[in-house]
Design a protein that fits this description.
This protein has 15 helices and 20 strands. The chain is an alpha+beta fold and 519 residues long. An eight-stranded mixed beta sheet has the order 8-12-13-20-19-18-17-16, with helices on both faces. A five-stranded mixed beta barrel has the order 1-2-3-5-4.
RNA sequence: GAUUCCGUAGCUCAGUUGGCAGAGCAUCUGACUUUUAAUCAGAGGGUCCUUGGUUCGAAUCCAAGCGGAAUCACCA
Protein backbone atom coordinates (compact mmCIF):
# COMPACT_ATOMS: atom_id res chain seq x y z
CA UNK A 1 0.00 0.00 0.00
CA UNK A 2 1.57 3.25 -0.99
CA UNK A 3 0.86 6.61 0.46
CA UNK A 4 -0.45 9.47 -1.58
CA UNK A 5 2.52 11.71 -2.18
CA UNK A 6 2.53 15.43 -1.81
CA UNK A 7 3.43 17.53 -4.80
CA UNK A 8 6.96 17.95 -3.54
CA UNK A 9 7.40 14.25 -2.92
CA UNK A 10 6.15 13.47 -6.42
CA UNK A 11 8.68 15.90 -7.88
CA UNK A 12 11.45 14.09 -6.01
CA UNK A 13 10.25 10.65 -7.08
CA UNK A 14 10.13 11.81 -10.68
CA UNK A 15 13.67 13.14 -10.32
CA UNK A 16 14.76 9.77 -8.94
CA UNK A 17 13.25 8.00 -11.95
CA UNK A 18 14.93 10.37 -14.36
CA UNK A 19 18.28 9.82 -12.66
CA UNK A 20 17.91 6.10 -13.16
CA UNK A 21 16.99 6.62 -16.82
CA UNK A 22 20.16 8.70 -17.17
CA UNK A 23 22.21 5.85 -15.70
CA UNK A 24 22.80 7.55 -12.33
CA UNK A 25 22.27 5.42 -9.24
CA UNK A 26 20.34 7.65 -6.82
CA UNK A 27 21.53 5.44 -3.94
CA UNK A 28 25.27 4.97 -4.32
CA UNK A 29 27.37 2.38 -2.50
CA UNK A 30 30.13 4.44 -0.95
CA UNK A 31 32.19 7.59 -1.11
CA UNK A 32 35.74 8.19 -0.06
CA UNK A 33 35.52 10.96 2.53
CA UNK A 34 38.89 12.55 3.22
CA UNK A 35 37.76 15.70 5.04
CA UNK A 36 34.94 17.10 7.12
CA UNK A 37 33.42 20.56 7.02
CA UNK A 38 34.63 22.01 10.30
CA UNK A 39 38.28 20.88 10.02
CA UNK A 40 38.39 22.22 6.46
CA UNK A 41 37.20 25.64 7.65
CA UNK A 42 39.79 25.57 10.40
CA UNK A 43 42.57 24.24 8.22
CA UNK A 44 42.25 26.74 5.40
CA UNK A 45 45.12 29.21 5.26
CA UNK A 46 44.52 32.07 2.77
CA UNK A 47 48.21 32.75 2.39
CA UNK A 48 48.97 29.20 1.33
CA UNK A 49 45.77 28.10 -0.38
CA UNK A 50 44.24 31.23 -1.91
CA UNK A 51 45.55 32.69 -5.19
CA UNK A 52 47.17 36.04 -4.39
CA UNK A 53 47.52 38.94 -6.80
CA UNK A 54 51.02 38.86 -8.19
CA UNK A 55 51.83 36.16 -5.67
CA UNK A 56 53.17 32.64 -6.18
CA UNK A 57 50.78 29.93 -7.36
CA UNK A 58 48.77 28.64 -4.40
CA UNK A 59 49.21 25.19 -3.01
CA UNK A 60 45.87 23.50 -3.70
CA UNK A 61 43.95 22.34 -0.62
CA UNK A 62 42.23 19.32 -2.13
CA UNK A 63 39.40 17.64 -0.26
CA UNK A 64 36.69 15.04 -0.68
CA UNK A 65 33.62 15.60 1.47
CA UNK A 66 30.11 14.21 1.68
CA UNK A 67 26.90 15.41 3.23
CA UNK A 68 23.45 16.79 2.79
CA UNK A 69 22.49 19.78 0.63
CA UNK A 70 20.94 22.33 3.02
CA UNK A 71 20.50 25.40 0.83
CA UNK A 72 20.93 26.36 -2.83
CA UNK A 73 21.60 29.55 -4.75
CA UNK A 74 21.62 28.97 -8.48
CA UNK A 75 22.79 31.75 -10.79
CA UNK A 76 22.73 30.60 -14.36
CA UNK A 77 25.93 28.75 -15.08
CA UNK A 78 27.19 28.70 -11.50
CA UNK A 79 25.71 27.93 -8.12
CA UNK A 80 26.45 27.84 -4.43
CA UNK A 81 25.03 25.47 -1.89
CA UNK A 82 25.72 24.51 1.69
CA UNK A 83 26.71 20.97 2.51
CA UNK A 84 26.11 19.69 6.03
CA UNK A 85 28.09 16.80 7.44
CA UNK A 86 28.60 15.43 10.93
CA UNK A 87 30.85 18.32 11.89
CA UNK A 88 29.01 21.30 10.45
CA UNK A 89 28.38 23.12 7.19
CA UNK A 90 30.58 24.29 4.38
CA UNK A 91 29.69 26.13 1.21
CA UNK A 92 30.24 24.45 -2.16
CA UNK A 93 30.78 26.33 -5.42
CA UNK A 94 29.77 24.59 -8.63
CA UNK A 95 30.11 25.90 -12.13
CA UNK A 96 28.83 24.34 -15.32
CA UNK A 97 32.16 24.02 -17.06
CA UNK A 98 33.88 22.17 -14.20
CA UNK A 99 31.47 19.25 -14.35
CA UNK A 100 30.93 16.63 -17.06
CA UNK A 101 29.04 17.74 -20.14
CA UNK A 102 25.34 18.25 -19.31
CA UNK A 103 25.65 17.28 -15.63
CA UNK A 104 25.21 20.79 -14.29
CA UNK A 105 22.16 21.66 -16.37
CA UNK A 106 20.42 18.31 -16.47
CA UNK A 107 21.30 16.74 -13.13
CA UNK A 108 22.47 19.36 -10.66
CA UNK A 109 19.90 21.99 -11.55
CA UNK A 110 16.95 19.74 -12.34
CA UNK A 111 17.25 16.52 -10.36
CA UNK A 112 18.97 17.50 -7.13
CA UNK A 113 17.12 19.06 -4.22
CA UNK A 114 17.72 20.35 -0.75
CA UNK A 115 18.04 17.30 1.49
CA UNK A 116 19.87 15.11 -1.03
CA UNK A 117 23.15 13.58 0.03
CA UNK A 118 26.08 14.14 -2.30
CA UNK A 119 29.81 13.62 -2.46
CA UNK A 120 32.11 16.47 -3.53
CA UNK A 121 35.71 16.50 -4.65
CA UNK A 122 37.43 19.81 -5.17
CA UNK A 123 39.71 22.44 -3.72
CA UNK A 124 39.17 24.91 -0.94
CA UNK A 125 39.10 28.63 -1.66
CA UNK A 126 37.71 31.84 -0.27
CA UNK A 127 34.91 33.64 -2.09
CA UNK A 128 34.77 37.32 -2.88
CA UNK A 129 32.51 37.68 0.17
CA UNK A 130 35.13 35.93 2.30
CA UNK A 131 33.41 32.60 2.92
CA UNK A 132 35.68 29.59 2.88
CA UNK A 133 34.18 27.23 0.30
CA UNK A 134 34.95 24.18 -1.78
CA UNK A 135 35.22 24.60 -5.54
CA UNK A 136 33.65 21.36 -6.79
CA UNK A 137 35.38 19.43 -9.54
CA UNK A 138 33.36 16.29 -9.05
CA UNK A 139 29.85 15.89 -7.67
CA UNK A 140 28.09 12.58 -7.16
CA UNK A 141 24.64 11.70 -5.95
CA UNK A 142 24.95 9.45 -2.91
CA UNK A 143 21.34 9.33 -1.72
CA UNK A 144 18.25 11.00 -3.08
CA UNK A 145 15.87 12.38 -0.43
CA UNK A 146 12.33 11.49 -1.41
CA UNK A 147 10.77 13.68 1.26
CA UNK A 148 11.33 17.41 1.60
CA UNK A 149 13.07 18.66 4.73
CA UNK A 150 11.54 21.34 6.89
CA UNK A 151 14.07 23.85 5.75
CA UNK A 152 15.65 26.15 8.23
CA UNK A 153 17.13 29.36 6.96
CA UNK A 154 19.47 31.25 9.15
CA UNK A 155 21.09 34.63 9.16
CA UNK A 156 23.33 35.88 11.86
CA UNK A 157 20.42 37.54 13.64
CA UNK A 158 17.45 35.32 12.91
CA UNK A 159 16.30 31.81 12.12
CA UNK A 160 13.46 31.25 9.70
CA UNK A 161 10.97 28.42 9.46
CA UNK A 162 12.50 26.54 12.32
CA UNK A 163 10.58 23.41 13.25
CA UNK A 164 9.24 24.15 16.69
CA UNK A 165 6.53 21.52 17.02
CA UNK A 166 7.81 19.26 19.77
CA UNK A 167 5.75 16.34 18.62
CA UNK A 168 7.33 16.52 15.18
CA UNK A 169 10.76 16.81 16.72
CA UNK A 170 10.35 13.82 19.06
CA UNK A 171 8.55 11.57 16.58
CA UNK A 172 10.94 12.33 13.73
CA UNK A 173 14.10 12.83 15.72
CA UNK A 174 16.13 12.12 12.58
CA UNK A 175 14.73 15.31 11.07
CA UNK A 176 15.21 17.21 14.32
CA UNK A 177 18.88 16.17 14.28
CA UNK A 178 19.32 17.23 10.65
CA UNK A 179 17.96 20.71 11.15
CA UNK A 180 19.04 21.44 14.73
CA UNK A 181 22.81 21.33 15.28
CA UNK A 182 22.29 22.08 18.97
CA UNK A 183 20.30 18.86 19.35
CA UNK A 184 23.20 16.90 17.87
CA UNK A 185 25.49 18.68 20.31
CA UNK A 186 23.28 17.80 23.29
CA UNK A 187 23.51 14.11 22.47
CA UNK A 188 27.25 14.33 21.87
CA UNK A 189 27.57 15.86 25.33
CA UNK A 190 25.47 13.12 26.81
CA UNK A 191 27.76 10.55 25.17
CA UNK A 192 30.85 12.35 26.49
CA UNK A 193 29.31 12.40 29.95
CA UNK A 194 28.69 8.65 29.96
CA UNK A 195 32.17 8.03 28.58
CA UNK A 196 33.69 10.18 31.32
CA UNK A 197 31.63 8.41 33.96
CA UNK A 198 32.77 5.03 32.69
CA UNK A 199 36.37 6.20 32.61
CA UNK A 200 36.14 7.50 36.18
CA UNK A 201 34.80 4.17 37.43
CA UNK A 202 37.13 1.99 35.35
CA UNK A 203 40.13 3.95 36.58
CA UNK A 204 39.20 2.99 40.13
CA UNK A 205 39.10 -0.66 39.20
CA UNK A 206 35.35 -1.22 39.34
CA UNK A 207 34.12 -3.92 36.98
CA UNK A 208 31.41 -3.09 34.48
CA UNK A 209 28.89 -5.92 34.38
CA UNK A 210 25.61 -6.81 32.73
CA UNK A 211 22.75 -8.23 34.75
CA UNK A 212 19.33 -9.44 33.60
CA UNK A 213 16.77 -7.10 32.15
CA UNK A 214 14.19 -9.88 32.23
CA UNK A 215 13.64 -10.88 35.83
CA UNK A 216 11.32 -13.42 37.44
CA UNK A 217 11.13 -11.23 40.55
CA UNK A 218 11.59 -7.48 40.27
CA UNK A 219 13.19 -5.49 43.03
CA UNK A 220 15.58 -2.79 44.10
CA UNK A 221 13.12 0.09 43.90
CA UNK A 222 9.55 1.04 44.61
CA UNK A 223 7.84 1.12 41.23
CA UNK A 224 5.37 -0.70 39.08
CA UNK A 225 7.01 -2.98 36.50
CA UNK A 226 6.34 -3.89 32.89
CA UNK A 227 5.27 -7.51 32.63
CA UNK A 228 6.06 -9.91 29.83
CA UNK A 229 5.99 -13.63 29.16
CA UNK A 230 8.54 -16.20 28.11
CA UNK A 231 6.96 -18.76 25.81
CA UNK A 232 9.34 -21.72 26.06
CA UNK A 233 9.38 -21.70 29.86
CA UNK A 234 5.78 -20.49 30.00
CA UNK A 235 6.70 -18.04 32.72
CA UNK A 236 5.90 -14.49 33.68
CA UNK A 237 8.85 -12.14 33.51
CA UNK A 238 9.30 -8.53 34.55
CA UNK A 239 11.43 -5.85 32.94
CA UNK A 240 13.81 -4.66 35.61
CA UNK A 241 12.98 -1.56 37.64
CA UNK A 242 16.51 -1.50 39.11
CA UNK A 243 19.76 -3.47 38.93
CA UNK A 244 20.40 -3.39 42.65
CA UNK A 245 19.75 -6.91 43.85
CA UNK A 246 21.75 -8.59 41.10
CA UNK A 247 24.70 -6.25 41.59
CA UNK A 248 24.80 -6.96 45.31
CA UNK A 249 24.79 -10.70 44.55
CA UNK A 250 28.04 -9.99 42.71
CA UNK A 251 29.49 -8.34 45.81
CA UNK A 252 28.57 -11.53 47.67
CA UNK A 253 30.41 -13.37 44.90
CA UNK A 254 33.64 -11.57 45.70
CA UNK A 255 33.85 -8.56 43.39
CA UNK A 256 35.08 -5.52 45.31
CA UNK A 257 33.32 -3.07 43.07
CA UNK A 258 30.82 -3.52 40.26
CA UNK A 259 28.80 -1.08 38.21
CA UNK A 260 26.24 -1.18 35.44
CA UNK A 261 24.99 1.54 33.13
CA UNK A 262 21.74 0.36 31.70
CA UNK A 263 18.08 0.89 31.00
CA UNK A 264 15.51 0.43 33.74
CA UNK A 265 11.79 0.28 33.05
CA UNK A 266 9.00 1.64 35.23
CA UNK A 267 5.38 1.37 34.28
CA UNK A 268 4.43 4.83 35.38
CA UNK A 269 3.44 8.22 34.07
CA UNK A 270 5.35 10.39 31.64
CA UNK A 271 6.49 13.87 32.45
CA UNK A 272 9.27 16.33 31.93
CA UNK A 273 11.28 14.22 34.41
CA UNK A 274 9.99 10.72 33.68
CA UNK A 275 10.30 8.39 30.72
CA UNK A 276 9.17 4.78 31.18
CA UNK A 277 12.56 3.51 30.08
CA UNK A 278 15.48 5.47 31.41
CA UNK A 279 19.17 5.04 32.05
CA UNK A 280 20.56 4.27 35.46
CA UNK A 281 24.11 3.91 36.67
CA UNK A 282 24.39 1.72 39.73
CA UNK A 283 27.62 1.14 41.63
CA UNK A 284 28.38 -1.12 44.60
CA UNK A 285 31.68 -1.03 46.47
CA UNK A 286 32.62 -3.51 49.20
CA UNK A 287 33.93 -2.47 52.61
CA UNK A 288 32.65 1.13 52.21
CA UNK A 289 29.75 3.01 53.72
CA UNK A 290 27.49 5.86 52.66
CA UNK A 291 29.79 8.58 53.98
CA UNK A 292 32.54 7.32 51.69
CA UNK A 293 30.06 7.16 48.82
CA UNK A 294 29.14 10.83 49.27
CA UNK A 295 32.75 11.77 48.61
CA UNK A 296 32.84 9.59 45.53
CA UNK A 297 29.64 11.13 44.16
CA UNK A 298 30.78 14.73 44.54
CA UNK A 299 34.14 13.83 43.04
CA UNK A 300 32.49 12.06 40.10
CA UNK A 301 30.06 14.81 39.27
CA UNK A 302 32.61 17.57 39.70
CA UNK A 303 34.80 15.56 37.32
CA UNK A 304 31.97 15.30 34.79
CA UNK A 305 31.30 19.05 34.87
CA UNK A 306 34.99 19.78 34.39
CA UNK A 307 35.31 17.26 31.57
CA UNK A 308 32.29 18.56 29.69
CA UNK A 309 32.52 22.27 30.37
CA UNK A 310 35.94 22.94 31.83
CA UNK A 311 34.31 24.54 34.87
CA UNK A 312 32.27 23.45 37.87
CA UNK A 313 29.85 26.36 37.43
CA UNK A 314 27.01 25.55 35.06
CA UNK A 315 24.08 27.62 33.96
CA UNK A 316 20.95 25.50 34.41
CA UNK A 317 17.73 27.29 33.60
CA UNK A 318 17.62 30.43 35.70
CA UNK A 319 20.26 29.23 38.13
CA UNK A 320 24.01 29.01 38.18
CA UNK A 321 24.92 25.74 39.82
CA UNK A 322 28.33 25.07 41.23
CA UNK A 323 29.34 21.43 41.41
CA UNK A 324 32.62 22.13 43.16
CA UNK A 325 33.12 19.80 46.10
CA UNK A 326 32.57 19.47 48.96
CA UNK A 327 28.80 19.71 48.76
CA UNK A 328 26.59 20.66 51.65
CA UNK A 329 25.44 17.75 53.83
CA UNK A 330 22.15 18.07 55.62
CA UNK A 331 20.19 15.43 57.53
CA UNK A 332 16.65 15.07 56.23
CA UNK A 333 15.00 16.17 59.46
CA UNK A 334 17.24 19.23 59.76
CA UNK A 335 16.43 20.18 56.18
CA UNK A 336 12.73 19.95 56.94
CA UNK A 337 13.11 21.96 60.14
CA UNK A 338 15.10 24.62 58.30
CA UNK A 339 12.31 25.11 55.77
CA UNK A 340 9.15 24.47 57.74
CA UNK A 341 10.12 25.11 61.37
CA UNK A 342 8.96 21.63 62.36
CA UNK A 343 11.36 19.11 63.90
CA UNK A 344 9.95 15.73 62.97
CA UNK A 345 12.52 13.45 64.60
CA UNK A 346 10.89 11.13 67.11
CA UNK A 347 7.34 12.07 66.16
CA UNK A 348 4.86 9.22 65.65
CA UNK A 349 2.58 8.73 62.68
CA UNK A 350 -0.36 10.77 64.00
CA UNK A 351 1.85 13.66 65.09
CA UNK A 352 3.42 13.68 61.63
CA UNK A 353 -0.03 13.67 60.03
CA UNK A 354 -0.98 16.68 62.13
CA UNK A 355 2.13 18.57 60.97
CA UNK A 356 1.40 17.61 57.38
CA UNK A 357 -2.14 18.92 57.64
CA UNK A 358 -0.96 22.14 59.29
CA UNK A 359 1.37 22.63 56.32
CA UNK A 360 -1.57 22.19 53.97
CA UNK A 361 -0.85 18.70 52.71
CA UNK A 362 -3.60 16.25 51.94
CA UNK A 363 -2.89 13.36 54.33
CA UNK A 364 -4.71 10.09 53.69
CA UNK A 365 -5.28 7.45 56.34
CA UNK A 366 -3.32 4.91 54.32
CA UNK A 367 -0.15 7.04 54.44
CA UNK A 368 2.47 5.75 56.85
CA UNK A 369 4.96 7.84 58.82
CA UNK A 370 7.67 7.53 56.20
CA UNK A 371 5.31 8.49 53.40
CA UNK A 372 4.21 11.64 55.27
CA UNK A 373 7.81 12.67 55.88
CA UNK A 374 8.53 12.11 52.21
CA UNK A 375 5.56 14.27 51.23
CA UNK A 376 6.66 17.11 53.49
CA UNK A 377 10.21 16.92 52.14
CA UNK A 378 9.10 16.71 48.52
CA UNK A 379 6.62 19.54 48.89
CA UNK A 380 8.48 22.07 50.99
CA UNK A 381 12.19 21.32 50.88
CA UNK A 382 13.32 19.59 47.71
CA UNK A 383 12.21 22.31 45.25
CA UNK A 384 14.32 24.85 47.14
CA UNK A 385 17.54 22.85 47.03
CA UNK A 386 19.23 24.37 44.00
CA UNK A 387 22.94 23.95 44.75
CA UNK A 388 24.00 20.31 45.03
CA UNK A 389 23.16 19.07 48.51
CA UNK A 390 23.36 15.69 50.20
CA UNK A 391 20.24 14.96 52.18
CA UNK A 392 21.05 12.18 54.66
CA UNK A 393 19.47 9.73 57.07
CA UNK A 394 16.04 8.67 55.86
CA UNK A 395 13.25 6.87 57.73
CA UNK A 396 13.62 3.11 57.63
CA UNK A 397 10.13 2.58 56.14
CA UNK A 398 11.18 4.38 52.96
CA UNK A 399 14.35 2.36 52.50
CA UNK A 400 13.86 -1.40 52.75
CA UNK A 401 17.32 -2.17 51.33
CA UNK A 402 19.36 0.27 53.42
CA UNK A 403 21.26 -0.47 56.61
CA UNK A 404 20.01 0.83 59.94
CA UNK A 405 21.71 3.99 61.04
CA UNK A 406 24.59 3.28 63.41
CA UNK A 407 23.40 5.92 65.92
CA UNK A 408 19.95 7.27 65.02
CA UNK A 409 17.01 4.99 65.83
CA UNK A 410 14.39 4.54 63.13
CA UNK A 411 16.65 5.89 60.40
CA UNK A 412 18.86 4.31 57.79
CA UNK A 413 22.24 5.33 56.40
CA UNK A 414 21.01 6.71 53.14
CA UNK A 415 21.53 9.90 51.15
CA UNK A 416 20.17 11.53 48.09
CA UNK A 417 21.94 14.27 46.17
CA UNK A 418 19.48 17.00 45.29
CA UNK A 419 20.30 19.57 42.66
CA UNK A 420 18.12 22.14 40.93
CA UNK A 421 15.19 20.89 43.01
CA UNK A 422 15.49 17.29 41.79
CA UNK A 423 17.05 14.08 43.02
CA UNK A 424 20.06 13.10 40.97
CA UNK A 425 21.23 10.11 42.96
CA UNK A 426 20.29 7.79 45.78
CA UNK A 427 22.73 5.80 47.86
CA UNK A 428 23.10 3.91 51.10
CA UNK A 429 25.11 1.70 53.30
CA UNK A 430 23.67 -1.56 52.03
CA UNK A 431 21.71 -3.76 54.36
CA UNK A 432 23.71 -6.99 54.66
CA UNK A 433 21.96 -8.63 57.60
CA UNK A 434 19.82 -11.33 55.93
CA UNK A 435 17.40 -11.62 58.85
CA UNK A 436 16.80 -7.87 58.97
CA UNK A 437 16.41 -7.91 55.19
CA UNK A 438 13.82 -10.69 55.43
CA UNK A 439 11.78 -8.64 57.92
CA UNK A 440 11.95 -5.61 55.64
CA UNK A 441 10.78 -7.69 52.68
CA UNK A 442 7.95 -9.12 54.74
CA UNK A 443 6.86 -5.58 55.62
CA UNK A 444 6.90 -4.77 51.91
CA UNK A 445 4.76 -7.82 51.17
CA UNK A 446 2.27 -6.62 53.82
CA UNK A 447 2.17 -3.19 52.15
CA UNK A 448 1.62 -4.89 48.81
CA UNK A 449 -1.30 -6.85 50.17
CA UNK A 450 -2.77 -3.61 51.49
CA UNK A 451 -2.77 -2.31 47.92
CA UNK A 452 0.60 -0.56 47.54
CA UNK A 453 1.28 -1.29 43.88
CA UNK A 454 4.88 -0.19 44.29
CA UNK A 455 5.77 -2.45 47.20
CA UNK A 456 8.72 -4.79 46.72
CA UNK A 457 8.50 -8.52 46.27
CA UNK A 458 10.22 -10.98 48.58
CA UNK A 459 13.24 -12.33 46.78
CA UNK A 460 14.25 -15.65 48.41
CA UNK A 461 17.29 -16.09 46.23
CA UNK A 462 18.59 -12.67 47.21
CA UNK A 463 18.14 -13.57 50.89
CA UNK A 464 19.98 -16.83 50.27
CA UNK A 465 22.85 -14.83 48.79
CA UNK A 466 22.97 -12.54 51.83
CA UNK A 467 23.00 -15.58 54.11
CA UNK A 468 26.32 -16.60 52.58
CA UNK A 469 27.61 -13.22 53.81
CA UNK A 470 27.90 -9.89 52.02
CA UNK A 471 30.68 -7.56 53.16
CA UNK A 472 29.78 -4.07 54.30
CA UNK A 473 28.93 -2.33 51.04
CA UNK A 474 28.12 1.14 49.82
CA UNK A 475 25.67 1.37 46.92
CA UNK A 476 24.73 4.16 44.55
CA UNK A 477 22.22 4.81 41.81
CA UNK A 478 22.46 7.83 39.53
CA UNK A 479 19.71 8.81 37.10
CA UNK A 480 21.82 9.32 33.99
CA UNK A 481 19.08 11.14 32.07
CA UNK A 482 18.52 13.65 34.85
CA UNK A 483 22.23 14.21 35.22
CA UNK A 484 22.41 14.73 31.46
CA UNK A 485 19.61 17.31 31.77
CA UNK A 486 21.73 19.24 34.27
CA UNK A 487 24.92 18.91 32.25
CA UNK A 488 23.26 20.02 29.00
CA UNK A 489 20.88 22.61 30.48
CA UNK A 490 17.84 20.75 29.13
CA UNK A 491 14.45 21.39 30.63
CA UNK A 492 12.83 18.10 29.61
CA UNK A 493 14.03 14.52 29.85
CA UNK A 494 12.82 14.20 26.25
CA UNK A 495 15.57 16.54 25.21
CA UNK A 496 18.23 14.08 26.42
CA UNK A 497 16.53 10.86 25.24
CA UNK A 498 16.84 10.36 21.50
CA UNK A 499 13.53 8.56 21.06
CA UNK A 500 11.26 9.35 24.01
CA UNK A 501 8.07 7.36 24.39
CA UNK A 502 5.02 8.92 22.77
CA UNK A 503 1.61 7.59 21.98
CA UNK A 504 1.58 5.75 18.66
CA UNK A 505 0.72 7.82 15.65
CA UNK A 506 -2.86 7.45 14.49
CA UNK A 507 -1.80 5.85 11.20
CA UNK A 508 -0.02 3.09 13.09
CA UNK A 509 -2.90 2.35 15.42
CA UNK A 510 -4.31 -0.25 13.04
CA UNK A 511 -0.98 -2.06 12.68
CA UNK A 512 -1.37 -5.70 13.57
CA UNK A 513 0.17 -7.02 16.72
CA UNK A 514 2.92 -9.53 16.34
CA UNK A 515 1.30 -12.87 17.16
CA UNK A 516 2.58 -14.55 20.30
CA UNK A 517 5.49 -16.81 19.47
CA UNK A 518 5.85 -15.57 15.92
CA UNK A 519 9.30 -15.39 14.36
C1' G B 1 -6.06 10.89 35.76
C1' A B 2 -7.34 16.71 36.25
C1' U B 3 -6.91 21.67 34.26
C1' U B 4 -5.35 25.15 30.54
C1' C B 5 -3.58 26.06 25.69
C1' C B 6 -2.75 24.26 20.74
C1' G B 7 -3.90 21.38 15.80
C1' U B 8 -4.87 25.63 8.58
C1' A B 9 0.12 24.10 2.23
C1' G B 10 6.51 20.42 2.91
C1' C B 11 8.01 24.28 7.22
C1' U B 12 6.73 28.87 10.09
C1' C B 13 2.27 31.23 10.61
C1' A B 14 -2.13 34.82 9.41
C1' G B 15 -7.30 34.23 8.60
C1' U B 16 -11.72 40.37 10.65
C1' U B 17 -18.91 39.70 12.74
C1' G B 18 -19.99 32.90 10.37
C1' G B 19 -19.73 34.75 3.69
C1' C B 20 -14.61 32.62 -2.72
C1' A B 21 -8.51 29.35 1.59
C1' G B 22 -3.96 33.46 2.51
C1' A B 23 1.55 35.16 3.20
C1' G B 24 6.91 34.12 3.60
C1' C B 25 10.22 30.24 2.82
C1' A B 26 10.15 25.47 0.15
C1' U B 27 8.35 23.35 -4.92
C1' C B 28 7.66 24.04 -10.50
C1' U B 29 8.82 27.16 -15.34
C1' G B 30 12.07 31.02 -17.26
C1' A B 31 16.46 34.70 -16.68
C1' C B 32 21.18 35.12 -14.29
C1' U B 33 29.16 32.58 -13.76
C1' U B 34 31.23 34.70 -6.55
C1' U B 35 25.93 33.97 -4.05
C1' U B 36 24.74 33.43 1.08
C1' A B 37 17.08 34.45 3.74
C1' A B 38 20.74 35.39 -3.59
C1' U B 39 17.78 38.35 -6.95
C1' C B 40 13.95 39.13 -10.90
C1' A B 41 9.33 37.37 -13.71
C1' G B 42 5.49 33.79 -13.70
C1' A B 43 2.90 29.13 -11.91
C1' G B 44 1.17 25.03 -9.04
C1' G B 45 0.18 23.05 -4.23
C1' G B 46 -5.20 22.30 1.08
C1' U B 47 -9.03 15.75 4.43
C1' C B 48 -8.50 23.85 7.58
C1' C B 49 -6.97 16.92 13.10
C1' U B 50 -11.69 13.55 13.05
C1' U B 51 -16.94 12.80 13.64
C1' G B 52 -21.44 14.88 14.66
C1' G B 53 -24.54 19.38 15.58
C1' U B 54 -26.37 24.63 14.83
C1' U B 55 -26.92 27.58 10.26
C1' C B 56 -29.04 29.48 3.73
C1' G B 57 -23.72 29.09 4.60
C1' A B 58 -18.58 26.64 9.38
C1' A B 59 -11.34 26.95 9.23
C1' U B 60 -14.41 30.22 12.41
C1' C B 61 -19.87 28.71 16.88
C1' C B 62 -21.32 24.04 19.98
C1' A B 63 -20.39 18.73 21.51
C1' A B 64 -17.61 14.37 21.55
C1' G B 65 -13.20 12.08 20.12
C1' C B 66 -7.87 11.84 18.48
C1' G B 67 -2.93 13.90 18.96
C1' G B 68 0.55 17.34 21.27
C1' A B 69 2.45 20.89 24.97
C1' A B 70 2.48 23.11 29.83
C1' U B 71 1.04 22.77 34.97
C1' C B 72 -0.72 19.49 38.74
C1' A B 73 -1.29 14.37 40.50
C1' C B 74 1.67 9.84 40.30
C1' C B 75 6.98 9.03 40.09
C1' A B 76 11.18 4.90 47.34
Amino acid sequence: MSRIHSEQEQVRRDARARMEEAGINPFAYSWNVTHHAQPVLEGFDPERHQPQEDGPAPEPFRVSVAGRIMSRRIMGKAAFFHLQDATGRIQIYVSRDDLPEGFYNEVFKKLLDIGDIVGIEGFVFQTRMGEISIHAERLEVLAKALRPLPIVKETEERTFNEVTDKEFRYRQRYVDLIVHPDVRETFRQRARMVTAMRGFLDERGYVEVETPVLQPIYGGAAARPFTTHHNALDMKLYMRIADELYLKRLIVGGFDGVYEISKDFRNEGLSRFHNPEFTMMELYVAYKDYAWMMELVEELIEHLALTLHGTTELQVGAHTINFQRPWKRLPLFDAIEERTGHQLFGKDRDELAAVGKKLGLHIEDSMGAGKIIDEIFGGFVEPHLIQPTFITDYPVELSPLAKKHRSKAGLVERFEAICNGKEICNAFSELNDPDDQRERFEEQVRLGKRGDAEAMQLDEDYLRALEYGMPPTAGLGIGVDRLAMLMTNSESIRDVILFPLLRPEAEDASAEDTPEGAA
